[in-house]
Amino acid sequence: MKTQVVIIGAGPSGLLLGQLLYKNGIDAIVIERQSSEYVLARIRAGVLEQVMVELLEEAGIAQRLHQEGLVHDGFDIVFNQDRLHIDLKELTGGKTVTVYGQTEVTKDLMQARSKAGLTTVYGAQDVELVDIDSHNPKVRYTLDGKTHEVVAELIAGCDGFHGVCRASIPKSSIQEFERVYPFGWLGVLADVPPVQHDLIYGNHPDGFYLCSLRSERRSRYYLQTTTNDSVENWSDERFWDTLEQRLPIDLRVSLTKGPSIEKSIAPLRSFVAEPLRYGNLFLAGDAAHIVPPTGAKGLNLAASDIRYLSRAFIEYFKDKSSAGIDFYSQKALSRIWKGERFSWWMSMLLHQFPENSSFDKKIQETEFNYLKSSEAAQRVLAENYVGLSYD
Ligand code: FAD
Ligand code: DHB
Question: What is the pTM of this model?
Answer without folding.
Answer: 0.97
